[in-house]
Amino acid sequence: xxxxxxxxxxxxxxxxxxxxxxxxxxxxxxxxxxxxxxxxxxxxxxxxxxxxxxxxxxxxxxxxxxxxxxxxxxxxxxxxxxxxxxxxxxxxxxxxxxxxxxxxxxxxxxxxxxxxxxxxxxxxxxxxxxxxxxxxxxxxxxxxxxxxxxxxxxxxxxxxxxxxxxxxxxxxxxxxxxxxxxxxxxxxxxxxxxxxxxxxxxxxxxxxxxxxxxxxxxxxxxxxxxxxxxxxxxxxxxxxxxxxxxxxxxxxxxxxxxxxxxxxxxxxxxx
Amino acid sequence: xxxxxxxxxxxxxxxxxxxxxxxxxxxxxxxxxxxxxxxxxxxxxxxxxxxxxxxxxxxxxxxxxxxxxxxxxxxxxxxxxxxxxxxxxxxxxxxxxxxxxxxxxxxxxxxxxxxxxxxxxxxxxxxxxxxxxxxxxxxxxxxxxxxxxxxxxxxxxxxxxxxxxxxxxxxxxxxxxxxxxxxxxxxxxxxxxxxxxxxxxxxxxxxxxxxxxxxxxxxxxxxxxxxxxxxxxxxxxxxxxxxxxxxxxxxxxxxxxxxxxxxxxxxxxxxxxxxxxxxxxxxxxxxxxxxxxxxxxxxxxxxxxxxxxxxxxxxx
Lengths: 271, 316
Description:
The complex is a heterodimer.
Chain A: H1 17-36, H2 39-59, E1 65-66, E2 69-70, H3 71-101, H4 104-110, H5 115-144, H6 151-163, H7 166-178, H8 184-198, H9 210-216, H10 220-231, H11 240-265
Antiparallel strand pairs in A: 1-2
Helix pairs in contact in A: 1-5, 2-3, 2-5, 3-5, 3-7, 3-8, 3-10, 5-6, 5-7, 6-10, 7-11, 10-11
Chain B: H1 2-9, E1 19-30, E2 33-44, E3 48-52, H2 59-66, E4 74-79, H3 87-90, E5 93-96, H4 108-118, H5 125-131, H6 147-159, E6 165-169, H7 177-192, E7 196-201, H8 204-210, E8 213-218, E9 221-226, H9 228-234, E10 238-243, H10 248-253, E11 257-263, E12 266-271, H11 274-284, E13 289-295, H12 298-314
Parallel strand pairs in B: 3-7, 3-8, 5-6, 6-7
Antiparallel strand pairs in B: 1-2, 1-4, 8-9, 10-12, 10-13, 11-12
Helix pairs in contact in B: 9-12
């Protein structure tokens, strides 16, 4: 037997900050690339809000107004919410459920990858896709819908929607920890679609029946869409802080659920 | 004895390589099922150890405990004398696990690049591709690879960090003969560089081909440990294969016969000593033909060990 020179006391292997930053960057870069190349993901997440916007905001109703705001402008806020919500939910939940259920996450956990990098990469990827969706809506609205918004308002709207996508990334992590690889997409749709409808993301909020409008008050997409509408001047003049507080609380609850799932996973046997 | 002394005093006895990974009196339960029962297992620097057992024996559980993916219900798990969940340990280990699905839209070199980044001193893309035999596939998307090629990528991810200790969980399962031989060669190359390898398998031939030391595990307990030669010697025996008109029942009643099996038109007779059985056989059937007498291989040893263990109350 060869006398292998193996040092048994743990050498002080500490990563430099630059190395750690590189890991986070590459993790996010490859997560984004992976999703971008996944036609199922990009088509559904990017095309649905854009298609709906074109149909309802540019082809039909282009010259109508909702409560004083031009339809193409109004719908950027609501379909923007719909879009970032979908990008975040599908970006995090489906991938996480699949990685967990099929053993890939274990391979990554067995490696020296900092666990946090995995989650950050998923959230960042969702935010990048959210940005793409909102910018696409901006481009369509401005060029084809006659939308006129000062640069400051555009930036504020983009920022609101992208930051506002974080609660849905958190929700995606919570769902991803408890769903199986095959059940995750249908479960996400079961949550995503009714929630969107009841929050006034398809039929504008003021046209929803009263009962539904009551429900909307506890739904996060309602609060995000109200924040977005507020930026374009179509909000219901409720407290901005109040909306952010609901979103923050929702994020905390989802992260708590995700954490329970994370700890439960430390013990589960796969395959 | 020496192992016990080592445990108590942490003494490094001359002639033995240091222990790089160990399970000490480990129990692991999944609910009511005890997957590992009082397991003592050591991996020493520079050796290739095979954990050999049937499906469900507890091999993957043992590997996951050593990788810090699971916590033991009792006992201690040590890797490089520390806790396996210690991130510094993970810098020095690489793992090839059984995976249902790997991200398919990333290319081979992208997978290797990402995993290499986790490590302090990665092997470098060119070398990893060379060792794993993936040079021509580096730009291929994972989803476009064949089963054997996918296994080689998982192997590449295990070695890309140039780890001191390598865990391979059923590395050749589902591969055809040629792909399996290729992977064995690649593993041997690594061993020549001085890596320590723990490999789990239910392919007896694989343990025989690769391992310096084999630990046979069944139903959560290690029932035998030693070199492949020692394991085979524990159930020394001969195998007589022939075509005979003597019935199976009658063959079993011959003194010294431990087992009789049918193999298409022939029978396989297992016995400790071939000559007395052969004399009986010729006496009963003068027209016996197609006679072959061989030493029992690892397969027979393994079956004998697991059956004996079951008889002695190994089952729970």
